[in-house]
Amino acid sequence: MYSFKNDYSEGAHPRILNALIESNLVQTEGYGEDCYTQEAVELLKQKINRKDVDIHLLSGGTQTNLIAISAFLRPHEAAIAANTGHILVHEAGSVEATGHKVLSIAVEDGKITPAQIKSVLDTHTDEHMVKPKLVYISNPTEIGSIYRKGELEQISGFCKENGLILFLDGARLGSALCAAGNDLTLTDLGRLTDAFYIGGTKNGALIGEALVICRESLQEDFRFHMKQKGALLAKGRLLGVQFLELFRDELYFDLAKHANKMADLLREAIRKEGFSFLTQSPSNQIFPILPNRLIEALQEIYAFYIWSKVDEAHSSIRLVTSWATREDAVLAFIADMKKTLESR
Amino acid sequence: MYSFKNDYSEGAHPRILNALIESNLVQTEGYGEDCYTQEAVELLKQKINRKDVDIHLLSGGTQTNLIAISAFLRPHEAAIAANTGHILVHEAGSVEATGHKVLSIAVEDGKITPAQIKSVLDTHTDEHMVKPKLVYISNPTEIGSIYRKGELEQISGFCKENGLILFLDGARLGSALCAAGNDLTLTDLGRLTDAFYIGGTKNGALIGEALVICRESLQEDFRFHMKQKGALLAKGRLLGVQFLELFRDELYFDLAKHANKMADLLREAIRKEGFSFLTQSPSNQIFPILPNRLIEALQEIYAFYIWSKVDEAHSSIRLVTSWATREDAVLAFIADMKKTLESR
Amino acid sequence: MYSFKNDYSEGAHPRILNALIESNLVQTEGYGEDCYTQEAVELLKQKINRKDVDIHLLSGGTQTNLIAISAFLRPHEAAIAANTGHILVHEAGSVEATGHKVLSIAVEDGKITPAQIKSVLDTHTDEHMVKPKLVYISNPTEIGSIYRKGELEQISGFCKENGLILFLDGARLGSALCAAGNDLTLTDLGRLTDAFYIGGTKNGALIGEALVICRESLQEDFRFHMKQKGALLAKGRLLGVQFLELFRDELYFDLAKHANKMADLLREAIRKEGFSFLTQSPSNQIFPILPNRLIEALQEIYAFYIWSKVDEAHSSIRLVTSWATREDAVLAFIADMKKTLESR
Amino acid sequence: MYSFKNDYSEGAHPRILNALIESNLVQTEGYGEDCYTQEAVELLKQKINRKDVDIHLLSGGTQTNLIAISAFLRPHEAAIAANTGHILVHEAGSVEATGHKVLSIAVEDGKITPAQIKSVLDTHTDEHMVKPKLVYISNPTEIGSIYRKGELEQISGFCKENGLILFLDGARLGSALCAAGNDLTLTDLGRLTDAFYIGGTKNGALIGEALVICRESLQEDFRFHMKQKGALLAKGRLLGVQFLELFRDELYFDLAKHANKMADLLREAIRKEGFSFLTQSPSNQIFPILPNRLIEALQEIYAFYIWSKVDEAHSSIRLVTSWATREDAVLAFIADMKKTLESR
Questions:
Q1: CA neighbours within 13 Å on the CB side: how many for D102?
Q2: B231 and A64 in contact by Cβ < 8 A?
Q3: Distance in Å, alpha carbon of A28 to nearest chain B alpha carbon
Q4: Is C51 exposed, middle or buried (0-12, 13-18, 19+ CB in 10 A)?
Q5: Which of B9, B206, B235 shows the shortest C-beta gap to A8?
Q6: Is the pLDDT of residue C10 over 90?
Q7: Taking residues D244-253, what's their average pLDDT?
Q8: CB of D190 within 8 A of CB of D48?
């Protein structure tokens, strides 16, 4: 049964495996001080177009979020996130486990605005409450929407004016930067955020996220925090080799474009059948609202998650594509959908 | 320059890379619920000869230690470790960062005894002090020594009598279990400890440690702790595939035997030259005490760590071998040592 | 300017000061092992009608909440609270600082129901989310409402069925238990909750809250948690002497009755003028909705907090009475209110 | 049975109780923003001779230590303390519970030197270990010895040169500053430390420690940390009134002088009988080494702690005096000691 459940259902892109094989018996230093990691870091600095950022390679999104946030905040400071934010809901209280509250903003489309951030600041005014200090956003958001450059500039400006740290979760950043309507670049992120990360696991790597710390005052001693939280891998080369391969040329973006293209095919075909979507997602996760009967029929042939009940007869589902999604499988899904609809 | 600095200087054993390639495009569930992880876990249970243990695959030693210890202890409870213990010294306060004190026992040979544990209990008698609750030991120890079955049985018995949790760090467990003088098996560890882990990273894997939780009362909800600390990998298959390959046959032990054999060659050759050792290590880390001049000469051709100053003219060095250590490199090291000694 | 801002604006009831004076030079053990604390604990057990509860005297509400909750929960477990809950909003993230998320339930009247708790459980289903484990309620709530026995029995029953810990914050418990409409007793609380506390600071003591741990499995080693969080006072007698005096006879309830009676006077007088209230509060905090002009006039003569804006011309204010509130001041407030209204 | 067990066996000095009575019905703001606390803080700034220090009143020593240290340090930073240090041994792991390791220095006399601090820095060199950042000292130390100005200047200079924070625990500071041989003043402490506290609980107050934060960069947002750890008392006046009374004139020092004088009487009498002492303590805790038979005889009439076994026939005991110690009781103790010795 072909799966559209996730963008981490397969292993790694063959070029990445090949890079691991080729580098395999070279002896290197441990703990991220190997030549591959160093080279990958330099390459990323070029792509971001800043020499003064700090870059660290970590194993996964939750790990990156919790280490960055706990390293950046003092004990009484809190993060602000959309109520769809991954740190708020799907990371098992990892930020709270480091001692920090995550303040929630109710949003419609996964994105937050300066006005919403301001409303949090306005209600946190003295030492009987936590002090909001870090704004956490995801691009794309957890429901597939993406930030436009103008939106990010407004958030960034508001954060600077109010002494807030802006942190961008880029677990699926490749898909966002390659989505229709995107006008952001890695260079923009390096300029507009205080820190962000470039997700590898969900875009062709076996494992790995590259955290970029842009604000100098947040860079000090970061490797201590990584070690303390169990994130310094003895064979850090595993992360270095992969990011080096992803960014040696355009592989990272090519993989994201493929994922997006597969989502585009699905999106268009579903739209043509007259169905709407729960969220406006130009990225590699789409949330079509379908009749329950159609869903049940499709579930017999394809794996995917049911996202939410919409009304008695309809639900939204989540379809995720990736670098590994086969076009023939997408076309088969579309054909099976049409066949099912016609047979009713 | 050939390196004896570590057992994580290279990538993975070729069979492991091959297993990753072969499984690469199979679609699986995420977060350790894939078929490879499940199969690896079942295989390990067979090797341990217990069906009722819980087994979880994690990324590294520090991560495994901090998650296990913080999951097992209540807030006021403390761990006890030898003063050479990895959690006490070389994990950047990771256990304390989860809120728990680590109490130190001064030891000679890296190993602790029931009498030493008792002396800690005797001085922690009321609520003005922490409550010692978990005994942390490493096998092999951080200085290469290993526990005999009789020693482990005594510690285990003492812990049971005193309501203590016995946790064994097995970052280099393969080397211990294959060392000359060893009489312990995985089955023994399953019987004598409350939890232990089987290190993969330092014995041929790219990454990965298998935590075995033997005591039932410590098993509940463990995946929550993993998630909360950022240790549930989206592509958990990366760990599953590797452990499956390592334990499908005798690969894990074969690799450890090779590492030990390389250490044996070095140890014997050094001993024959009349040098002594800082610690009695039958495992893959040895600590010869050599004249400083010899050390300087060898450093020009080989990479290794200087461990400690012994007297004005002598220091101890650390030589580490692994599954990847080439016999020709070992023989060359020995030859170069002899040549240097003769030329003086 | 007479203040209705709080029930902690004055020192202690004279009988409490007197008890401190009389006991002052008696030599006792430290850290709560003094005779006064022991006697107070025995007395409270009688009032609760259970010998098997554990009782500890602490310094304040935030301290009591954070120690109890962090002692009761394992690292991945979370508390559930109404969105008005003190731990959620006004304790500076103290629970999160111990590592635990507080899950919010949106409520109207400060109280939560089993159905609302169930909705939280229903959306927290696996290890990617925290595990809801403790239900935090306040009686009276932070907006003055009180729980009826039937309501508390339902919550208690639901918690038992679902393995949840029920913890009741009684910072103003005296006022709740003496309010019109109350049908709960200390004995009921001992039977229906897993733990609760009896607030002293806001009912005539200088300082002090009595935490009652009813569920046996939560009692073990509690003094360790108190010490670790800095709550074991060297002169624990300070707390013991006060609680002994408060519960030696009916003083605790007499003081609460006085506070409630003063609130009743204010409430009735305001109601007679035709004003409504933001919340239905029979306890010592009331939230009348008044014209802004009236509020401004009253603010020139009395101190109180403006609670919230209701519409362009009206706001709610908070008036708090206590054991120390003078009846003549209440009557003067009422007279001044009437005079202001007539003069417009 | 008269007790020399502690300096917190009685309540408060009568003048303090009187101040509480006199201020009792004055209405004030809560949470330390009352007029008494403000006035006490101003008074203390005058005594310290610095306007730019921040002063906060807290409830006890463990609370003060844990809040200050956790507020001052980033997650990966550690404290350094003598192995007799209160935070290391007798605070139930309270500092570790906030996430920070406490590194131990083995000392003879309770005091630490720059050379000992340097040895800790020299062995903590990279991110695999914690980063030593704060030096914790006590004056008097936990075994009664005191720091001379020259010693403190050396430590202070070393800390400044090495970017370390110097924190002085003054739980019994009054006794130190009034001891024979002392040449330090409050002004010196304000100049030489980054933070220190002035203990009230053990010098005549019911409860209360005054934390003085001298280094400006450590002052920001400190009340948030107090609130988060449960240390902001609703009736903060309880602390303010007491410190105001203690420092309104020379009361604080007069009480300490009395305690020291009582200790002097005991020390001299014991010395005259030919007994030695475990530690050189000029302050209000002394540790005579006495024959076990004498100890047993005295224990029948007086309460005190046996501190340690010295040899088969001798042990050290701890005698503590305070503002409340009666001279007649001291003289009786001395007489009983002599009588016992003569009767043997």
A1: 30
A2: no
A3: 5
A4: exposed
A5: B235
A6: yes
A7: 98
A8: yes
pTM of the model: 0.97
B72-110 pLDDT tens trace: 999 999 999 999 999 999 999 999 999 999 999 999 999
**Contact partners of C by the rule of 3+ C-beta pairs under 8 A?**
A, B, D
Number of H helices, E strands in chain A: 14, 13
Express each pLDDT in D41-98 by its tens digit. 999 999 999 999 999 999 999 999 999 999 999 999 999 999 999 999 999 999 999 9
CA D231 to chain C, closest CA, distance in angstroms equals 7
CATH number of D14-250: 3.40.640.10
Sites in chain B below the pLDDT cut of 70 = none
- Contact yes or no for B228 and A97 at CB 8 A: yes
Cβ <8 Å between B206 and A30: no
C-beta atoms of B76 and D89 within 8 A: no
CATH assignment of C2-6+252-342, among 3.30.70.20, 3.90.1150.10, 3.90.1490.10, 3.40.50.1370? 3.90.1150.10
* Chain B residues whose beta carbon lies within 8 Å of the beta carbon of residue C75: 70-71, 98, 225, 228
Task: Give CA–CA dist C314/C334, Å, rounded.
Answer: 19
The CATH superfamily of B2-6+252-343 is Aspartate Aminotransferase, domain 1 (3.90.1150.10)
* A&C contacts, CB < 8 Å: 57
Residue C176 phi, psi dihedral angles, 5° rounding: -65, -50
The domain segmentation of chain D, as residue ranges, is 2-6+252-342, 14-250
pLDDT in tens, C276-290: 999 999 999 999 999
Q: How far is D79 from chain B (nearest CA, A)?
A: 11
* pLDDT tens track for B287-298: 999 999 999 999
Residues of A in contact with C93 (CB under 8 A): 76, 78, 99-101, 129-130
Distance of alpha carbon C215 from alpha carbon B275, whole angstroms: 64
As a whole number of angstroms, the distance between CA C38 and CA C31 comes to 11
Res. D328: pLDDT tops 80: yes
D209 alpha carbon, distance to own chain's centre: 9
Task: State the smallest CA–CA distance between residue B109 and chain D in angstroms.
Answer: 20
* Predicted-complex ipTM score: 0.97
Q: Work out how many CB contacts closer than 8 A connect A with D.
A: 52
CATH code for the domain defined by B14-249 = 3.40.640.10
